[in-house]
Amino acid sequence: MYPIVKVSNVIKHFKDVKAVDGINLEMQQGEFLALLGPNGAGKTTLVEMIEGIQHPDSGEILIDGKHWKGHAHELHHIIGLSLQETHFLEKITVKETLKLFASFYGLPKKRVDEILEMVNLREKHKAFVDKLSGGQKQRLALGIAMLNNAKLLLLDEPTTGLDPTARREMWNILMHLREEHKISLILTTHYMEEAQYLCERIVILDKGKILAQGTLNEILEANNSYEIIDLSFNETVENINFLNKSSFVKATWDDKTQKARLLVTDIVTELPKLLELVQSNGLSLQTLECHKMTLDDLFIEMTGRRLDQ
Amino acid sequence: MQSPLLQLIIVQFKTFIREPEVIFWSLLFPILMAWGLGMAFNKENESVISIVQVKNDQYPDSAFRSFMVGAKEIKNINSPNEKALEQDVTIQGLGTNHYKIIDGTWEQAYVLLKRGVVNLVIEETAEGLQYHFDPKSGEAKASYLQFSGILKGKQEELSHTLIKPLSQKGTRYIDFLVPGLIAMGLMMSTMWGISYSLIEKRSKKLLRRLVATPMNKSSFMISQFAARFVLCTIEALVLYIFARYFFDMTIEGNISAMIALFCAGFFAFCGIALLLASRTSNTFVGNGIINLVVMPMMLLSGIYFSYHNFPDAIIPYIQALPLTMIADGIRSVFLEGAGWTELFKPILILSTIGFVTFISGLKVFKWY
Fold first, then answer.
1. Domains of chain B, earliest start first
2. ipTM of the complex model
3. Cα dihedral value B313, B314, B316, B322, nearest 10
4. Partner-chain residue, chosen from A83, A96, A106, that has the shortest CB–CB distance to B209
């Protein structure tokens, strides 16, 4: 069996920007994969190349063992997708929109009703598209992507801009899909929780390159993940040099928030040492937070920037 | 499940009829325009001639003064506090002229001349009544000739001359106007409708989404044209039916040739529209491009007034414009009884324009 997606050495330029810079990626059938990265990381370009909408400058993309060239018609039938922000025709109802797309795949009417059920839009089937909320529009886009029972589903930022409830509803539909159907999914997002919740495999992209990939734990372990202690003081602190002298991995000071962040190998053994140090320097703690490193933290560690920026 | 082409046409057509503005602008507006302009140029042959008189009681002009006897006082709309006088003169065959005489000084006369309220000023002087007007203005000249003629007692003479008013169908302004409006409606509806909707679909990424399905690209284009064709035909029919019943217009020539011309014109504008919309995804840019093509034709193609008033040197170029070909063609069928022989050439040229622009537009068309 072919991998459902195989991306080899793919490069794509836009004028002088390298949007995708030599990416290799292989995805097995049935896998749920998240492309995680900030805006401009190259997620959309990569996904659109897999979708056949854009073409790589160099490198090769195979879907189910086939090139886009010469197999476009076939591949359109096994792929379902939602683009980042598509505006469907405003004065056309939800059901009419689904019917239109269903006609391209030669699907029976029944399928439209099934989809309305799956994406919870039955009650809205007579509503014009321009009367839908953001979440409902995204669910319509997802419904269209799911119409043809695609082997491979590609969703480009399906929950960006949605409120937590709408996002959760989207997640539930996708989780259901994952459990019930043999389907492969590529999802782009800049929400760490989304990648973590929906996908077993996460690929972190930045500036057109893959920074890390694997399951959440694999990524964290492979990148010497540490544990984190955030603290602030009651007193004004001149510098935190005293924190660097201990067995802590790294201490940083954020001037804006007036907080110190310590990377440690093990909170349980390092915390008492920290408290002792604070006391011996004549300081007292205002706040203290301990947690394991998240993907967000890791991304900041690796790039100095936040994922959702 | 219905065929994709049929679905696309239905959806496209629904987008038209669900926008009430579309119904107004494409159906009601041309009728209002035809009605308004038709009425304005077709009303009873009455006209108002406004004149400022600069009175001088030292040298009263007897002909003028006696003309003014029995004049009725009317409201002076230019200066509500003052009155003007109106004297009506009816000449058999020419209808009634309302002479509106406003009393005033030279200063006031200049203001009214500048505002275009009057085009003739008369002044009583020692040498008799003097007429002041711009001899380059045909209208001013006509006012002078009529008014001075009446004062000289030519009224009787005029009445006995043989005046035969033209009111035969086909020579009225409305007869000239309606075929032009049908041609213009076809152009506007096609160019704006198709170009703009394609550009908008591209800017909203809908084109991109559509071609990521197994949808046939030519089905999509055909659906855009087909839905628009239905709308254009309804527009033309509504306008024709209105003119038929309201202004009693009839088609003198070959209807099948005219339908062929209409279709060829539609095809030509479809091709041009597709070509214009082939690249840009910015609706503002699209707006400019469409205007660039549509405006010159609207102004030059003789929709409202004959283009024969333009210099002879540019008339052949005007006649080569698609809109001129359609307007002249429809007009010749309506009014001159033209048929296939006369329309063969424009039909062929328009079809060729359509074919060439359609193929090249499709070649460079940007779906993403």
1. 4-40+169-364 (no CATH), 47-160 (3.40.190)
2. 0.83
3. 180
4. A83
